[in-house]
Amino acid sequence: MSAVPIIQVDSLARRFGEFEAVRGVSFDVEEGEIFGFLGPNGAGKSTTINMLVTMLRPTSGEARVAGFSVTEDQTRVRESIGIVFQEATLDESLTGWENLRFHADVYDIPMATFNERADAVLKTVELDEWRKTLVRNYSGGMKRRLEIARGLLHYPKVLFLDEPTLGLDPQSRIALWDYIREIQARERITVFLTTHYMGEAEYCNRIAVIDHGEIVALDTPAMLKAGLGGDVVTLVTKDNFRASVELEAMALEPRIEDGVIRFEAPDGASTVARVFREVTPEIVSVDLRKPSLEDVFISLTGREIRADEASAADRMKSQMRAGMLGPGGRRM
Amino acid sequence: MTAAMVEAGERAGVRREARAFWSLFRRDMLKFVRERGRIVSSLLQPILFLGIFGLGLKDVLGGTGPFQELDYIQYIFPGVIGINVLGISMSTGVTIVTDREFGFLREVLVAPISRLSIAAGKVAAGVGTALLQASILLLLAPLLGLTPSLSQLVLLFAAIALLAVATSALGVLIASRIRSVESFQYVFQFMLFPLFFLSGAFFVLDRVPGWIAVIAKLNPLTYAIDLFRHILYSDIELSEASEELLLVNSAAQDVIIIVVISVVLLAASVISFSRTE
Q1: Fewer Cβ in 10 A, N or C end of chain A?
Q2: ipTM of this predicted complex?
């Protein structure tokens, strides 16, 4: 790892009219990291990424990518990065190979180098046999893979992935992550990604949890989970209100959500035993587990990320083929 | 950085811009050639004009039209070419709007190239498609009794390219301000018909009311069609009266006016396009 962070963000903010999409975020990303931005839709993830890739001017604050200012040295920043946007950005009436060729032209990759790299990168994402097929005939997963291949073609120092697996089936998502991790390990590039899938956040070296345009936590997944204070216990009783009053008397911090009592405890197993002895309403069910990032998110923001609702909104959004600004301008 | 490094960097920058310009041009040409349906359908309109106006209205207008030396269909042929160039090259704007809708424009905008190269590449593609289309249309000329020589053809293509720069730049200008294909087409249609009919393409603009004459004078198509006529009729003997009515300006005047309009539109389109985020 180099001494100077590859991404430096200092009080970066962006407002759309009255709405503050990003409210002065600051963080560093080290070279070679997989760094994740985790948050619900409308939290400010895409707005932040659009500012980092020079597609949106910050209202205030500053960011440097690969050592260059995103407001003053845009061309240098653009040279140093690869981007896979949330929305598709392929030309569907060209073949996969032609899409790569166009990219090589606008990034000025010498033709000999291009042929060699395009071959390699198409093999990596298993699209080698489809190179001469028009992209409109590709499946959703194939298009996504081609976009990633294209983003890597000019050997960027940082690869930005805005919701890279949005709208993909679970199998394609797993395969795509294998590619991302393989490429990241081999090329030693830095990966900056946004996601609202908890499972994907687990792959990151570090995660920034963003909500309402602010970073509410930033650490490794393990440390974030450890910060919760032990195990997660969920409990259903015949009288949840009374049970939670009794739990509070036991110096626990229960919360009732959707008919379920939830609390964290340093030693879950012995706490559950105590709960069975001391709680008077009849216990219907009990669950004890290690905390997930979902639990971290709930304890930080007081609500669930609501994966189902989010993906429905995303499907709608991608059908709308949102314009240039992406989702930053409105809250879904 | 040393001066040599800076210079090397600038050279690389210029080469990259040139390559980006070329790749944008090539992409649009490739797509145009691939979409045969678009070529055929855009040829139908001029053929329809020639058929309906040239053959259908010919007798209504008294056999030969306004001039003894020319058949009416020969009279409107330069105008039909002009209208076709206008339609084709302005649809360059549509390609920008669809690229924006389908996301591809982001790939272009986030590349390390200047907006100038992008706008210029788009205008060049508009000129290229207009020339391709015009060369197909010119195959009809002999059927209408016009047999342009090689030098006439060269001049004509140069004049077509000149008009196409102006109209493609207009297309890019409109597209830089419009987000959806539907509204682009609305604006396009709205502009197209006045430009069509107030250009002297179908009738002589000597007895029209003053306000129409003013619009016609502001219309780049008026000058382009006048220029096309200068070139296409250069081997036809015209009476002085006909010449005065038929050829409104001198060829040099036409060229200067179209060049000025092109430069203004080109500058406006580049500036407007650069401001899109």
Answers
A1: N
A2: 0.83
CA within 13 Å, CB half, B31? 22
In the numeric block, which tokens belong to residue A111?
A: 């033709």
Query: What letter does residue A15 receive in the DSSP assignment?
Result: E
Q: Do B102 and A321 touch (CB under 8 A)?
A: yes
pLDDT in the model for residue B277: 53
Q: What is the CATH number of the domain that holds A233?
A: 3.30.70
Number of domains forming the structure of chain B: 1
Q: What residue of B is the nearest CA neighbor of A151?
A: B107
| Beta partners for residue A309, in sequence order | none
Query: Among residues B152, B24, B186, which one has the least CA distance to residue B81?
Result: B152
- Inside any domain, residue B2: no
Tokens of A45: 């993830």
Environment class of A234 (CB within 10 Å of its CB; exposed 0-12, middle 13-18, buried 19+): middle
pLDDT surpassing 80 at residue B222: yes
In which domain, by residue range, is A43 found? 7-220+307-325
My answer on whether A199 and A235 are in the same domain is no
- B95 to chain A: which residues are within 8 Å by CB? none
Residue B81 to residue B127: CA distance in whole angstroms: 14
Residue B138 is given by DSSP the state G
Residue B265 token pair: 């539109």
pLDDT digits (tens, 9 = 90+) for A197-255: 877 888 899 999 998 899 999 999 888 888 877 888 889 999 999 999 999 888 888 88
A132: three-class secondary structure by DSSP = coil
Tell me, yes or no, whether A273 and A136 share the same domain: no
Range of the domain at B233: 13-276
- Say yes or no for a CB contact (<8 Å) between B110 and A55: yes
Cβ contact B152:B190 at 8 Å:
no
Nearest to A21 by CA among A241, A210, A267, A260: A210
Packed helices B115-137 and B92-101: angle between N→C axes, nearest 10 degrees: 130
Of B20, B103, B105, the CB nearest to A106: B20
